[in-house]
Amino acid sequence: MPSKRTLDTFLDDLASSSPAPGGGSVAALSGALGAALISMVCNLTIGKKKYADVDGDMKKIIGQSEDLRRQFTTLVDKDTLAFSKVMEAYSLPKDTEPQKALRGAAVREATKEATLVPLEVMKHCIDALALAQEVASRGNVNSISDAGVSALMLHTACEGAALNVRINLNSLDDPEFVGWKTDEVASLLSTSRMMLDEIQAIVEEKMKND
Amino acid sequence: MPSKRTLDTFLDDLASSSPAPGGGSVAALSGALGAALISMVCNLTIGKKKYADVDGDMKKIIGQSEDLRRQFTTLVDKDTLAFSKVMEAYSLPKDTEPQKALRGAAVREATKEATLVPLEVMKHCIDALALAQEVASRGNVNSISDAGVSALMLHTACEGAALNVRINLNSLDDPEFVGWKTDEVASLLSTSRMMLDEIQAIVEEKMKND
Hints:
Strand content of chain A: under 5%
Largest interface: A-B, 60 and 60 residues
Mean pLDDT of chain A: 96
Shape of chain A: elongated
Oligomer: homodimer
Structural class of chain A: mainly alpha
Order of helices and strands of chain A: HHHHHH
Number of helices of chain A: 6
Largest sheet of chain A: none
Radius of gyration of chain A: 20 Å
Helix content of chain A: over 70%
C-alpha cells in the first residue's frame, strides 16, 4: 500500500527503474491532494461567524471531498497493481500456439483493466472539481489560493490519467472498446478544462478583491 | 518533516483545519513528483541497447532530476514553516504603538520570506521542465506517458506556487518588492506554459507513433 509509505519512500519507488508506480499512480495522488485541499478549505470555513450561512453546505461538501480523497488514494494503489498485472501477462510463455493465445487474452484483459483505473480517476476529478468550484465561490476567502491549487491538481490528475488511458488503448486491438473509451476521455477532458477555467476565473476575481 | 510522514498522514494534515501544510506545500510536492518521474524515465532508458546513444545523457539528467527532487521535497517543509511564521507574526501583541510597529515589521518580514519559498519552487519547475523535455524527446518511448505526467505535475507546481506568491504579495505594503516579484511570477509562468506546450506536442507525436 503506497499510501502507508512515507512520502520519501513513495518518491523513491517512483524514481526507481520499476515501471510501477508511475504516471498513473501520480495522477491518482494528484487527485487525492486536490480533494484534501477542498476538505481543508471546508475546515477553515466551518464554524466561522462570517461564513455561518454556508456552514451546512461546507459540512456536506467535506463529507463528499473526504470520500473522494479515499477513493483517489485507493486508486494510487490500484493503478500500480493494474500495471503490474499487464507486465505479468506480457511475461507469460509464448512458445506454442495455445500459449500465445492464452498470453494474448491475458494481455488484452489486463490492459482493459489498466484503462479503467485512470478512467475512474478522471470521473472522480470531475466530481471533485464541482466541489472545488463551491469552496472557491463560497468558502473562506483567506484560503482562495488553496482552492485554486486544488483545482489545478484535480485538472492535472484528469489530464495525467487521460494519458494513461490513451497509452493503454494504443496497445489494444479492439476498435469498439477503443473508440468508445477514446470519446469518453475526450469528453471528460474537455469538461475538466472548462471547470478549471471557471474556477480560475473565480480565484482571479477573489485574489483581486483580497 | 512531512516527507518522513506517510502519504495518508500528509493528506490528513493537509485536509485538517490547520492552515499549514496547504496549497504551497502541495505545489512543492507536485514538483517533487514531477522530478521523480523524470528520474524514472531515465532509469527505464539507461542500460537499454536501443537507447545506448543517449545513455550518457540520461545518466547526466538523472543526477540533475534527483537533485531537483531533493530540493522540491525540502521546499514542501519550508513552505509549511514559512506559513507558520507568518501566522506567528500575526499573533504578536498589538496593544501599544511599539508593539504594533514590531508586529508590522515581523509580519512584513515573514510574508516576504513566504513569497520567496514558492518563487524558488517556480524556478526549479523551469529547470525540471527542461529535463522533462529531454526525456520526452529522447528517453524510452514506452515511458512517454510518464514523461507527459511529469511535465503536467511540474507546470501545475509552477502555477500553484504562483498563486501562493501572489496571495502573499497581496498583503504586502512594499510596491517596489511587489512590482518586481509580480513581473518575475508572470515571466516564470509564461515560460512554464510554453515549455509544457512544447513537451505536450512531443508526447502527442510519440503517442501517435507508438
